[in-house]
Amino acid sequence: MVRPVDYACHGEIVFVLVLNAGSSSLKFNLFDMAKETSIAEGMAERIGLADGSLTFVFESDKHKEVLPLPTHREALHAIIERLKAVVLHDTPIHAVGHRVVHGGPKYGDSLIVTDEVLADIDTFAMYAPLHNPANAMGIRVAREEFPDVPHVAVFDTAFHHNIPDHARTYGIPYELSQKYGIRRYGFHGSSHSYVAARTAILLCRPLRALKIVTCHIGNGTSICAVHNGRSVDTSMGMTPLQGVIMGTRCGTIDPSVVEMLMEYEHLDYNGITDLLNKKSGLLGISGVSSDFREIELAADAGNDRARLARDLLTYNVRQYIGAYATVLDGVDAICFTAGIGTHSTFVRAKVCSKLSFLGVKLDPEANEHGTGERIISTPDSRVVVTVVPTNEELMIARETVR
Ligand code: AMP
Description:
The structure is a single chain. The chain is of the alpha/beta class. It folds into two domains: 157 residues, ATPase, nucleotide binding domain (Nucleotidyltransferase, domain 5, 2-Layer Sandwich), CATH 3.30.420; 186 residues, Nucleotidyltransferase, domain 5 (2-Layer Sandwich). It is built from 15 helices and 14 strands. The strands form two sheets. The protein has an eight-stranded mixed sheet with strand order 5-4-3-2-1-6-8-7, with helices on both faces. The structure holds adenosine monophosphate. The site of adenosine monophosphate (AMP) has 12 residues, from helix 10 and helix 12. The site of adenosine monophosphate has 12 residues, from helix 10 and helix 12.
C-alpha cells in the first residue's frame, strides 16, 4: 500500500480503532498505522434484537457467534473483549476514528470530538435522521469505554464541503436554504477521495492535474466529479436519498410524487420516509431484492422487472458521467468502486458502452477477468477506466492520525 506523504504516521498514534455505528449494527476495524494494515475487523449485527451476532475476522480466520446484544454498549464491550483476548493483550488503543455521515453546514474537515461537536452531530440528524443518531450513539459509548484517547469524527460530507454554490444550491427560496441549511452536501466522501487518489497512482499522474469521475455503486450509490483532487459536484444531495437509484432508495424523483403518494396512499412523514428509503430503488422496481447479485440472477433468468431495475441503474450512472464530463470540461479517468462497481462486469460494460463519444474504450478481457485494483480500458482509450476496491475504513484511520 502506498502511503501519501501528507498522512505520515505520528509516532504515538499506532493502533487506531475505526467504528462505523448504524442503527442496529456496529462495524469495527483495528489498524496498525505504522504499517497501514488492518489487524482485525468485524461487525456486531442485530443490536437490540434477541439474536444479535458478532463476526470477528483475525488473521483471515472468521468467527461468527450468536449472542444477546441489547444495546450498542454491550456490542462494543463484546468487540473490545475479543480484541483484547486475541489481538491487543495489554497494548492500548491510541485513538478511535468514527464514521459520521453528516457534518451539516459547519464541518468541512475531520476533527477531534468534544461535547460541542457531539451536540452538533445530534443537531445534524435533521439532515440524516437514519444515520447521525446511530453515529452519535457509537461515539458516546466509545468515549465512555476509551475516555483517555482522542476520538475523531470523520464526515462523509467533508470531501464535498467546497463544491461551488451553483452545484449545491436547490431551486427553492434562497432565504429558506439559508435558514435551514438546505443544499447539496454529498456523501461517500472518504470513498470518493480514496479511489480518486488510487486512480491517479494507477495512471502514474498527479491527482492535482486530473479530471476524474468516481462511481461508488453499492447499496448506496453516488457519483462524484473530482477536479484536481477536489469534489466539484456529486449526485447525492442534502440527504443520501438523491441521485442514482440504489438498493432500497429511490434516487432523484419529481418532488410532486411525494405529495401524491402521501395524499393517495394516506402516508404520514414516517410512512413516506420509509417508502422512499427502504422500499424503493432496485428492491421496489424489481420486487425481487435490494441485493444486486439477486437482481442479476433474476434478470438473466428473464425477469422483466429485474431487467428494468438493472437497466435503470446503469442508465442513471451513465447520465451522471455524461453530466460530469461537462462539469469537468473533459474527463481523464472514470473509476468504479463499491460492491457493484468493483464486482459487476455487466454494469461496467453497460455503463461504458455508450461513452464512446468521450473516447472510452473498455478492454473486455481486463473488465471480465482481472481482480483488484486495475485499469480496464484499452491502451488507446482517451479516458482511462479503473476499478478500485474502496477502503473507507483506512481513510478514516488516516484522518484520525492526521
Ligand atoms: P456495498 O454497499 O458497497 O457493500 O455493495 C453492496 C452491493 O454490491 C449489493 O447490492 C451486492 O449485491 C453487490 N455485490 C457484491 N458482490 C457482487 C458481485 N460479485 N457481483 C455483483 N454485485 C455484487
